[in-house]
Amino acid sequence: MTPLRSRLPVLAASTAAVVVGLTACSGGSDGHGAAPAPADPTAATPRVGTILTANTTAQLGTVVVDGQGFTLYRFDKDTAKPPTSNCSGDCAKKWPPVLATPGAPLTVDGVEQEAVGTINRVDGTIQLTLNGWPVYRYSGDPQPGATTGQGIGDGQWAAVTPQGEKAANNS
């Protein structure tokens, strides 16, 4: 694993943090039902450094997972140029942004250091990006390695590759 040496000072010592929630951002039913929230949303938050790792899946090829092994996603309504998140409020409860926390290390494995960046969210938090695309976790993924968020919202959500691209189904 290679420590991240970001061109952005805030990433010099960052970690991904996640808060899991319930409601959808698409405004309609996603066909998967709402996932239950943990009793303590901060229980899903890593306490010491986080790892962004390239992980190979049979269905999607190589995707990025967080330090807990959960698949990370990108959203078609966001933009990479300029990097902008368009998922907040109820959307961010169902699709928690992967947040950077100054003072904790971030390590990448199989992800180019240059691909990792950050954006400032409207709520004042700092979200990680891959090649400009803001990244999220899906609250409906039942366990590490699950990819149940793939294709939700009429295909607007997709697992993210180490290059920041949308993962495609291999089937």
Describe the protein's architecture and organization:
The chain is mainly β and 171 residues long. It has one domain (2-159). The protein has two helices and 14 strands. The chain has helices at 90-94, 152-155, and strands at 2-3, 16-17, 50-57, 61-65, 72-75, 79-80, 83-84, 99-100, 106-109, 116-120, 126-130, 133-134, 136-137, 157-159. Strands 2, 8, 10, 11 and 12 form a five-stranded antiparallel sheet that branches. A hairpin with a 2-residue loop joins strand 6 and strand 7 (83-84). The protein starts with a strand and ends in a 12-residue tail after the last strand. The relative contact order is 0.27. Residues 1-47 have low confidence and may be disordered.
Entry summary:
The chain is mainly β and 171 residues long. The protein is 5% helix and 28% strand. Strands 2, 8, 10, 11 and 12 form a five-stranded antiparallel beta sheet that branches. It has a four-stranded mixed beta sheet with strand order 1-9-3-4, with no helix packed on it. A three-stranded antiparallel beta sheet has the order 13-5-14.
Largest sheet: 5 strands, antiparallel
Number of helical segments with 4 or more residues: 2
Tell me the count of domains.
1
Helix content: under 10%
Secondary structure tally: strands: 14
**How would the global form be characterised?**
globular
Note the run of SSEs as H and E: EEEEEEEHEEEEEEHE
Alpha carbon gap, first and last residue: 31 Å
Low-confidence spans: 1-47
- Please identify the structural class as seen in this structure: mainly beta
Radius of gyration: 14 Å
Average predicted local confidence, pLDDT? 78
Beta fraction: 25-35%
